[in-house]
Amino acid sequence: MSVTADLYVEVKNFYARQMRVLDDLDIEQFTATFTEDGSVAHPHRGEKVEGREAMRAKMTSMLPMYEGLVTRHWFDHFLIEPAGGAGDDGLRVTYYSLVTQSNAEEEVRFFSSSSVEDRLVRDEKGELRIRERVIHRDNPRHGRVI
């Protein structure tokens, strides 16, 4: 499978929609962008959450840390490639993520800077879903990931 201009735009729109629901703290819609058995790994925290239900529980437990803040996820420098392998029609998408937070005094701070690697697949309806996400927090001790 080649990465056409149409596919590139489709992938970028997928991420734009996904980040809007995340920034709106819409956990249900955000987790729906993953496959039912999808996973999110934070190697820098030694944590991997598997399945939508576990993702919802983890995200719900983290909601208090976002009270009184506006959080924005900024993704850029996308590299979209076929996942490879015979009969594999998925995509490997790598990109950089910068997360900012604004408070009631309109002060903005950088929350995190990361590189992210996603494995995208199509569901039975042909919609893009994330099967696996690995987030690497930028830290010189962890070396270069992408």
Automatic annotation (TrEMBL):
Q: Name one Pfam family in it.
A: SnoaL_4
Per the record, the domain of life is Bacteria
Annotated source species: Streptomyces phaeoluteigriseus
Pinpoint the SnoaL-like domain residues. 6-133
Q: What is this protein called?
A: DUF4440 domain-containing protein
Q: Please give the InterPro entries that the UniProt record associates with this protein.
A: NTF2-like_dom_sf, SnoaL-like
